Amino acid sequence: MLAKRIVPCLDVKEGATVKGVKFVDFRDAGDPVELGAKYSREGADELVYLDITASHEGRKTFTDVVRRVAAGVNIPFTVGGGINELGDVERLLNAGADKVSVNSAVLRHPELIEEIANHFGRQVCVVAIDARIEGDGTWKCYLNGGRVATGRGLFEWAAEAESRGAGEILFTSMTHDGVKEGYANDALAHLADTLSIPVIASGGAGSKAHFRDAFRQGKSDAALAASVFHFGEIGIGELKSYLQAEGIAVRS
Known about the structure:
alpha/beta; TIM Barrel; 27% strand; 252 residues
């Protein structure tokens, strides 16, 4: 069995790490470079850095932050936010990122997935999907940090992203984000059952058991979380020990 990955996520806004609830009401969580180095030392498998207002404000992801992170961590990390063309990907990879996360741009221009995969390899291309449950019970995708409805269905879009060359799907449930009541395991399991690429769970972690359930019930390959790590509610070492005791394979 492949080891499941624990992935702290650092949402960066104006140079600081922030965490919100359902994509609003943000509060400061610390310096993104210092936090990343701390998680690296504690045993995180990967990191994700998202410049959460880059697409909305038309800015580029902070290349200098990426360089500083690369100098301070020894684990892979993914960077997203404001990536609209191959030049953005090249700039971030040259700064030290291992992968890029694309969301709004590829919803608007899906062919960008193919361009990234063909130019840099599909392992570089993580397609992030922000979706929530609508009143009719269907999952719909949003762009620009959850601000703009697209009408695209979660499962349809994830399948297209894979077919175009995505290496991983990072699914964030806007319905569960920051609520700390568990991941969207039914939707995650459906993604895992219908896709052949790794699925990363995001949105809803509030306890160690929630990670267990994301791996067992949600069939996720990795679980991403933010506030439970940022505010010291769960330590990465204790989480991995718990998961091992629950029979879930994680890297020591």
